[in-house]
Design the sequence.
């Protein structure tokens, strides 16, 4: 199989029902029971669901009301993000014992490039097995993994034998693997895009591969080239250990819709304080401030302003947010407000990643 870049050994590790599993780990009485991390109130949303709850159709981002309707015995647990981050750091430290090329995607998943690794182990599959065993033995949680020649294939593969399993897709298996893949399982293809592909007669990777680059670009814009490449097993994205943070934000969904700007300003004050805390924790500042407004009819509007200098102070953030709030007349009552800073003063990606470009290897995973 010919590739434009040297083959790499990529592992995608995905924790199994992470938030819910942490809750079951810390409270043994919850083990084996359907639980949802999130709010059960009218506006509550499920952040994560245990596998016992998923059997009843409970999923993340589902309303707490609907989740309880699907599973009357569902137990709601308030999220403890500080605890999840603590556990996530323990797991990340295990990753770092094998390679410095670790790219966290969130608290519960990460890419590892083990083409050259600290253990001198030529088998990415054995490394993945060892990492998963260590996570279970040292942390008490299960993880699933996908192993292949690039990030796209590894991420798709990690979902194949969940929970507590792994799948390896060797170089010669990549094209047949992608051709047989259902289009909705392609990373980057959401429900809307999948429905559009179905209308175009694209149901599997094989169907997608039969479409020309011109056809895909015509129907999917700049994403067309991405689909054209990945269905052929080509994905050039490198594992970047210091993913550049693009924005920092905070937002709140209200139990009751707000129609008075006086109440909105009071909520913005608390949001600005939280954003200030997150900025200090991340040691960043930004030039572009964005006010996010979600109305009671669920329409979403944003208003932005770019400053000639970096800002991070809660008082200045609040003043700018007020300015954006008064920029236009409210169209309806408001159910959510958020403030974010982008155009951050973050650094550049480490040159460590680039060294792999010169490494020519032929191997099994």
Sequence:
């Amino acid at each position: 199989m010919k590739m434009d870049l040297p083959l790499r050994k990529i592992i995608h590790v995905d924790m199994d029902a992470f938030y819910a599993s942490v809750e079951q780990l810390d409270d043994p009485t919850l083990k084996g029971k359907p639980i949802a991390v999130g709010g059960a109130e009218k506006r509550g949303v499920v952040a994560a669901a245990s596998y016992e709850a998923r059997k009843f159709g409970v999923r993340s981002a589902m309303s707490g009301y609907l989740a309880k309707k699907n599973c009357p015995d569902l137990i709601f647990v308030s999220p403890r993000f500080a605890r999840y981050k603590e556990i996530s750091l323990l797991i990340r430290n295990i990753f770092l014992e094998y390679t410095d090329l670790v790219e966290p995607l969130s608290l519960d998943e990460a890419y590892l490039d083990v083409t050259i690794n600290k253990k001198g182990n030529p088998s990415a599959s054995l490394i993945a097995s060892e990492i998963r065993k260590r996570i279970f033995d040292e942390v008490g949680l299960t993880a699933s993994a996908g192993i292949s020649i690039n990030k796209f294939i590894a991420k798709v593969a990690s979902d194949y034998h969940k929970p507590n399993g792994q799948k390896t897709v060797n170089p010669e298996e990549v094209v047949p693997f992608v051709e047989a893949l259902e289009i909705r399982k392609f990373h980057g293809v959401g429900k809307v895009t999948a429905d559009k592909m179905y209308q175009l007669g694209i149901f599997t990777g094989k169907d997608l591969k039969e479409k020309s680059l011109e056809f895909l670009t015509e129907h999917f814009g700049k994403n067309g080239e991405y689909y054209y490449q990945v269905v052929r097993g080509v994905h050039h994205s490198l594992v970047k250990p210091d993913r550049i943070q693009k924005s920092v934000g905070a937002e709140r969904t209200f139990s009751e819709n707000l129609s008075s700007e006086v109440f909105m300003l009071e909520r913005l004050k608390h949001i600005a304080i939280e954003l200030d805390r997150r900025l200090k924790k991340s040691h960043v500042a930004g030039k572009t401030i964005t006010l996010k407004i979600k109305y009671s009819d669920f329409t979403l509007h944003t208003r932005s302003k770019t400053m000639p200098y970096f800002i991070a102070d809660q008082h200045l953030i609040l003043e700018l947010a007020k300015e954006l709030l008064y920029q236009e007349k409210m169209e309806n009552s408001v159910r959510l407000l958020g403030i974010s800073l982008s155009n951050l003063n973050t650094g550049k990606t480490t040159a460590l990643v680039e060294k792999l470009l010169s490494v020519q290897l032929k191997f099994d995973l």
In short: The radius of gyration is 23 Å. Residues 1 and 28 are 49 Å apart (CA to CA).
